[in-house]
Structure formats: C-alpha cells, structure tokens
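Field reference: "sequence" (input) and "structure" (output). Example, Aryl-sulfate sulfotransferase:
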Amino acid sequence: MSSAAGGPEPGILKRSVMIAGHRTSVSLEAPFWDALRHLAAARGTSMQALIGEVDAGRGGQNLSSAIRVFVLRAVWVEGAPPEFDGADPADIAPPS
C-alpha cells in the first residue's frame, strides 16, 4: 500500500527474509511483527522459520496477508502475549 503522496503507508515496516533459499521482502505493521516475534519465541523457533511455514501453506495468497491471517488466528487460539493482558490496544507500543 502507498500513501496519497506515493510513499509507504505510515506504520508499515518492510523487512527482508530468506524463504527456501530466496530473499524476499515482507511489509507488515509493527504490531504484526511484534506478535510474530512472540509467537516464534513461544514455539521455540525463529521468525524466519515461522514465516517459512506460513509461506508453505499460503497457496496463492499474498505473503504479507497470509502472515496477518496467521497471526490473527494464532492470537484467537493461543491468546495475546502476557504483557498485553488487560492493556488498552492504543497503549501497546511497537517494539523498539
């Protein structure tokens, strides 16, 4: 997505990841990167490995969209990370 001025959307962070030996870029909002990091840690794996799993099961879906759906489903099933319990979503800061 782009802003009206043609630049990247505010709050979108673009990161390079290696999937099956190929480098690709993924654009996600900071809270999704944070949640993905927590999910990977909780599962004892790396973010890159977790993204690889999402990639392997996404079919023709856009990778960034597939990651967002994966994170949403995981939070529904596993719940939010403990530090988010009772937090106002507006007060949750992106990782620094």
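The CA atoms of residues 12 and 28 lie 5 Å apart.
Helices lie at 30-42, 47-56, 63-78.
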